[in-house]
Write a structure and sequence with these properties.
The complex is a heterodimer of chains A (about 90) and B (about 160). Chain A has one domain. Chain A has four helices and no strands. The termini of chain A are far apart. Chain B has one domain. Chain B is about 65% helix and about 0% strand. Chain B is elongated and about 55 Å long. The chains are: A mainly alpha (about 90), B mainly alpha (about 160). Chains A and B meet through α2, α3 and α4 of A and α3 and α4 of B.
Chain lengths: ~90, ~160
């Protein structure tokens, strides 16, 4: 019974994903390319960086990178706090 | 044999590879504005060199060389440097690229279109790459050190 339920669920999800894949836009044709075109056209003149991805990450979308760095900082602090607690318990 | 580390084969290979991994990581950070990669990726590569060292020689083998407090201080310095560089152009906007095309440090302009690039370009982007790279390498290294030391302590009891 449990296996049959799993099979039905698996088939349902697979059919759903295949159905979604057939109605997808072709690769390389985004809905709205205005932002991408702007970055590609102006990254070299405005940021003077040849790597457009880095220009986006550290200049146009720098605030996102600040959040990413904060996430890493929080992860480090969490791990340190967790293992410090563990060691105090052992004593 | 040192019970904390791994076999002599692993330790010998680590001695050869360690420097190369470090150089590659710093190259990825330094050329972040020219080639694929950047601060996050290069920092992770450098941190993987530290992790390799820790796995090969054990926590006792690197005890005197990698200080946890030094790593944490460097991580905070990296985070503050990133934030400070973000505030450097606050006169115009948060994260305004003050140095790009200014002619001073990292201020040269680049030729348009596909080209090999020049290291002295990018404005604040290379400096931010270094700040984030410092932060990521020391952050991940301190996570690995603390977790390894904690795991060793549990094992011995």
């Amino acid at each position: 019974m449990r296996k049959a339920t799993l099979l039905v669920a698996f088939l349902f999800v697979t059919a759903f994903l295949l159905l979604a894949a057939t109605s997808m836009r072709p690769f390389g044709t985004p809905n709205d390319a205005a932002m991408d075109d702007y970055f590609i056209a102006n990254a070299q003149t405005e940021v003077a960086a040849n790597n457009v991805v880095t220009a986006v990450v550290f200049d146009y979308r720098g605030f996102d990178t600040l959040g990413e760095a904060t996430v890493l900082f929080a992860a480090v602090i969490g791990v340190l706090a967790l293992f410090r607690k563990l060691r105090e318990d052992e004593r | 044999m040192n019970q904390d580390g791994m076999s002599i084969i692993v330790r010998t290979v680590t001695r050869f590879v360690y420097g190369l991994v470090l150089v590659f990581g710093f190259y990825v950070i330094m050329h972040g504005h020219l080639t694929p990669g950047g601060g996050f990726q290069g920092g992770a590569v450098v941190a993987s060199a530290f992790a390799l060292l820790l796995v090969a020689f054990g926590a006792a083998g690197v005890k005197g060389r990698l200080s946890k407090h030094l790593l944490q201080s460097l991580e905070e310095i990296g985070a503050l440097a990133f934030l400070g560089l973000a505030f450097a152009g606050i006169g115009t906007a948060f994260f305004y690229n003050l140095l790009a095309n200014s002619g001073s440090l990292f201020g040269a302009s680049v030729a348009l279109g596909p080209n090999a690039g020049f290291l002295n370009t990018g404005g604040l982007v290379p400096l931010m790459n270094w700040a984030v790279g410092l932060k990521v390498m020391t952050g991940i290294a301190s996570i690995v050190i603390v977790m390894l030391v904690g795991a060793r302590k549990e094992e011995t009891e």
